[in-house]
Design goal:
The chain is of the alpha/beta class. The chain has 10 helices and 5 strands; from the N terminus they run αβαβααβααβαααβα. A 5-stranded parallel beta sheet has the order 2-3-1-4-5, with helices on both faces. Helix 1 packs parallel to helix 10 and helix 2 crosses helix 10. The protein binds adenosine-5'-diphosphate.
Length: 282
């Protein structure tokens, strides 16, 4: 039976590099449109294209794993309900779990607080051949920590440079670093929080502290803008992803990750000559 899968013409696929924050062009987060989209198609068609990007990602991840020389670190940040969990679920479904690890960072433990702020993150940077996804990350240490005044300003101010140096060190060690901020609007967050409260299967995700953070929305927007502007570098770029529409968000993130892996161009290791002539004995 003929396949019904849509054939996606790669030459016509859009350039999502426009969501990349250039070091020379600082952004103001409140001016970035969370509804931006170049897609008029129905959700079903966007999902079909997402499937195409997932296939690319799966193929490239197989090669990265086999090559076993380099790795990829993906940082995901968002306000509560911004869609970090959903993005991981939809973009990485089908990727071989053996080559991919997700690390979620919550409030630091006493042991973590007794070390330098990067200690707990460094332990989970990817090994050769692997993809690590940070669900929240070292950026919390210039976001929540700044907004809630958990350290003094002279401490968090120095962290931008330390983060840049940390990420630079990773890239010099063959780890490609890309960072996504999933940008939802305040109204969209309200809808999503209400939906969490209404839906018994989602209610467990709701925490009263989500409301405290929501009340600090404007402070977070400033802190996020500063983090992105100080730390979107040529070697470890930030992308601001319009995230009010989940299907578009997933498509753009999957596309950028696949493009990043494609640019890395991982290769299957060379095999010994003559293997094709070997007969396996009965
Ligand atoms: P999530 O919202 O990621 O699904 P939780 O609801 O458990 O997970 O929230 C994790 C909490 O941990 C967030 O409120 C976040 O701000 C907090 N957190 C993460 N990293 C840090 C940090 N370095 N310092 C203080 N709080 C942190």
């Amino acid at each position: 039976m003929a396949s019904k899968k849509k054939v996606v013409d790669k030459s016509s696929t859009p350039d999502y590099d426009r969501y990349r924050v250039l070091p020379s062009e600082p952004i103001i987060l409140s001016k970035q449109d969370p509804d931006d989209s170049d897609r008029q198609e129905k959700k079903k068609d966007i999902e079909q294209e997402l499937e195409f990007q997932r296939q690319r990602l799966q193929d490239l991840q197989r090669r990265l794993y086999a090559e076993h020389k380099r790795s990829l670190l993906i940082v995901l940040q968002a306000m509560d309900t911004g869609g970090k969990d959903g993005t991981i679920k939809h973009v990485f479904s089908g990727v071989n779990p053996q080559g991919c690890q997700v690390w979620s960072f919550k409030q630091p433990t006493v042991e973590e607080l007794n070390h330098d702020f990067l200690w707990r993150y460094h332990q989970h940077t990817p090994q050769r051949g692997m993809i690590s996804i940070f669900n929240r990350s070292h950026y919390e240490d210039v976001l929540v920590v700044r907004v809630k005044q958990l350290v003094t300003e002279d401490v968090w101010q120095k962290r931008y440079q330390l983060i840049n140096e940390f990420e630079h060190m990773l890239t010099l060690n063959n780890i490609t670093v890309i960072k996504f901020y999933l940008n939802i609007s305040k109204d969209e967050q309200k809808r999503r929080l209400e939906s969490r409260l209404e839906n018994p299967s989602k209610r467990w995700k709701f925490s009263r502290s989500d409301i405290d953070d929501r009340q600090l929305w404007d402070d977070y927007q400033i802190a996020i803008s500063d983090a992105i502007n100080n730390c979107s570098t040529g070697y470890a770029p930030w992308y601001i992803i319009p995230a009010n529409k989940k299907s578009y968000r997933n498509l753009v993130v999957a596309h950028i990750i696949a493009d990043t892996l494609e640019a890395m161009n991982p290769q299957y290791p060379k095999t010994e000559e003559g293997l094709e002539k070997i007969t396996i004995p009965d």
